[in-house]
Amino acid sequence: MSNSLKMSARNLDFYYGSFKALHSVSMDILSNQVTALIGPSGCGKSTFLRCLNRMNDLIDIARVEGELTLDGQNLYAGGGIDVVELRRRVGMVFQKPNPFPKTIFENVAYGLRVNGVRDNGFIARQVERGLKQAALWGEVKDRLHTNALGLSGGQQQRLCIARALAVEPEILLMDEPASALDPIATQKIEELIHELKQDLTIIIVTHSMQQAARVSDMTAFFYMGKLIEMDQTETIFTRPAKKQTEDYITGRFG
Predict the structure, then answer these.
(1) Is the dihedral of CA 169, 170, 174, 175 positive or negative?
(2) Confidence at residue 124, expressed as pLDDT on a 0 to 100 scale
(3) What's the gap between Cα 19 and its chain centre?
(4) What whole-number distance in Å separates Cα of residue 67 and Cα of residue 10?
(5) What's the distance, Cα to Cα, between the start and end of the chain in Å?
(6) Are the C-beta atoms of 240 and 45 separated by less than 8 Å?
(7) Can you give the three-state secondary structure of the chain, one letter per residue?
(8) Looking at residue 7, what is its pLDDT?
(9) Which pLDDT value is given to residue 79?
(10) pTM metric for this prediction
(11) Which portions of the chain are predicted below pLDDT 50?
């Protein structure tokens, strides 16, 4: 499996109004790898993650400068980018599970219906495929038409992953996907990440350095809106190049 270049940021600046939240971030994201973004709260990790599928477009005062490419196409080069299609290709799973107050089936089918799919047989197959990929099918296959809000927190989060997977994204963004979950549910999400990277490129924001060490191939350390260092995860955790990274990882920080 070739780890070719999937996404690339070059001198990416991000502003909320006059506040500059990201400073000249440059990084390459390789296909079929898990890239973890670590760093203290408020350092720009989630802001950067949301740039990757233009989720920040929903904020009126947000502004992006610099270049961000997906398969070589600049996502911020003015017109010509179909943002709905972009968000199909670059799916997102949030920190808190956010299932819709609909059935389990309709939660997973939602993205397909929004994208104009009308073939019920195809929708049913994609729902099953998404739930299987999210390691949830065995637990819910007999109650697909019950309300998704009846699921446990860990199941709800895997349902949200299934919903993202049903539209066959190429990239999955995960913003602290296990921070609201118990250790057993967290382990299931981590095992899932490991399996999904066979088919997908995954970028995960995590506050848990143990989690970053367990699930990721590459780790990027952010501080005060700047990318301080990015390298193979093992290198970042055992012999980081920057003292700032070492101080953060060893807890001598702040």
Answers:
(1) negative
(2) 97
(3) 24
(4) 5
(5) 41
(6) no
(7) CCCCEEEEEEEEEEEECCEEEEEEEEEEEECCCEEEEECCCCCCHHHHHHHCCCHHHHCCCEEEEEEEEECCEECCCCCCCCHHHHHHHEEEECCCCCCCCCEHHHHHHHHHHHCCCCCHHHHHHHHHHHHHHCCCHHHHCCCCCCEHHHCCHHHHHHHHHHHHHCCCCCEEEEECCCCCCCHHHHHHHHHHHHHHCCCCEEEEECCCHHHHHHHCCEEEEEECCEEEEEEEHHHHHHCCCCHHHHHHHCCCCC
(8) 97
(9) 73
(10) 0.94
(11) none
Q: What is the CA radius of gyration of the chain?
A: 18
Among all chains, which residue has been given the structure tokens 């709800």?
Answer: 156
In this structure, the number of other CB atoms found within 10 A of the CB of residue 119 comes to 10
pLDDT digits (tens, 9 = 90+) for 158-196: 999 999 999 999 999 999 999 888 899 899 999 999 999
Q: What confidence score (pLDDT) does residue 58 get?
A: 85
Which residues are within 8 A (CB) of 56 and not within 5 positions of it... i.e. 6 or more apart? Answer: 14, 47, 50, 62, 64
Question: Structure tokens of 113?
Answer: 């219906």
